[in-house]
Design a protein that fits this description.
Layout: H1 10-51, E1 56-57, E2 76-83, E3 89-96, E4 99-109, E5 115-124, E6 142-150, E7 164-165, H2 170-177, E8 185-191, H3 212-243, H4 248-294
Parallel strand pairs: 1-2, 3-7, 5-8
Antiparallel strand pairs: 2-4, 2-6, 3-4, 4-5, 6-8
Helix pairs in contact: 1-3
């Protein structure tokens, strides 16, 4: 009777543990991708809903010192006030279609003194060299803006230095400017019904589901492949033990040993031939010296 007792050997137990860990990792990574897919679908649903809604006064959506609710992302709001052009903040490292550039964020001071951070648009320029004087100035006087609500960024990239930052956050820009600000910010759609002069408008998000579904399936396939590979190798060894023949793995190892032995033998033969040639040359040189000495 054929036995599977070899699976209890140290080598096969360790092999099985590696396969189990690999399967768990691929299952977890697949689940992670499917969770990202669910989040992407939920986010897309919010964007689709908010893009179709009528513009709302900013005070009904945003508030001073409060974050942006997930359900309000990309909601269209309106606000009236005056731009504080001297407090323009440059957002560096913004690329479009492979081109480097910056965004220009300008506070719009409303009637009660609370400022709304408005990302007026993108300008193609050198990321390192641009400053507030390089971007087109906002219109003066009272302006009514319409724009899409965005949540604050987080992390070290939101730090403001010398009038510039790498990511927009009202929590850092407001204190840096010394102004009370609404939480979050808006991506400009229009100023008094017109896009910002000299700046490219915001790019609305793509509403596809991304590659997460296929990435999840791919990770799970890798896990199944690991199990299939383990089962095949186990069956191959079980069969080889029953027939007395070498398993595929053992055949590969034996072939490697034969090739290694042949290679070593060839090296030794070359080394021996070189040594014989060296000895013959040395004897010939000694004989010539003896002949010169005797003459």
């Amino acid at each position: 009777m054929r036995s599977w007792a070899f699976l209890l050997s140290r080598r096969w137990v360790l092999f099985a543990l590696v396969v189990v860990l690999l399967c768990y990792a691929t299952w977890w990574l697949g689940q992670w991708q499917f969770h990202r897919l669910a989040d992407r679908k939920a986010s897309n649903a919010v964007v689709r809903t908010n893009e179709d809604r009528a513009p709302t006064p900013v005070t009904e959506v945003l508030a001073r010192g409060e974050g942006v609710a997930a359900s309000d992302e990309w909601r269209l709001v309106t606000a009236t006030g005056a731009y504080a052009a001297d407090d323009t903040v440059i957002v560096r490292y913004r690329t479009r279609d492979g081109r480097s550039g910056v965004d220009a964020v300008v506070p719009l001071v409303t009637a009660d003194g609370t400022a709304l951070l408005v990302d007026r648009g993108w300008l193609a320029t050198d990321n390192q060299g641009a400053d507030a004087g390089d971007v087109p100035s906002p219109p003066g006087g009272e302006v009514t803006v319409e724009g899409w609500v965005r949540a604050d960024a987080t992390g070290d990239s939101t730090a403001v230095s010398d009038g510039s930052t790498r990511a927009i956050s009202s929590a850092t820009i407001g204190p840096a400017l010394g102004r009370p600000v609404f939480g979050g910010f808006v991506e400009l759609k229009a100023e008094d019904g017109r896009p910002a002069d000299g700046l490219e408008p915001v790019e609305l998000p793509e509403l596809d589901n991304g590659p997460h579904f296929f990435y999840g399936i791919q990770w799970w396939f890798f896990g199944v492949l690991a199990v299939v590979g383990f089962c095949y190798l186990a069956f191959d060894e079980w069969r080889s033990r029953a027939t007395g023949a070498d398993s595929t793995r053992e055949e590969v190892l034996a072939d490697r040993k034969r090739k290694r032995a042949a290679k070593n033998a060839k090296k030794q033969a070359v080394r021996a031939a070189y040594q014989r040639a060296y000895e013959a040359e040395r004897r010939e040189r000694e004989e010539r010296q003896d002949e010169r000495s005797s003459s």
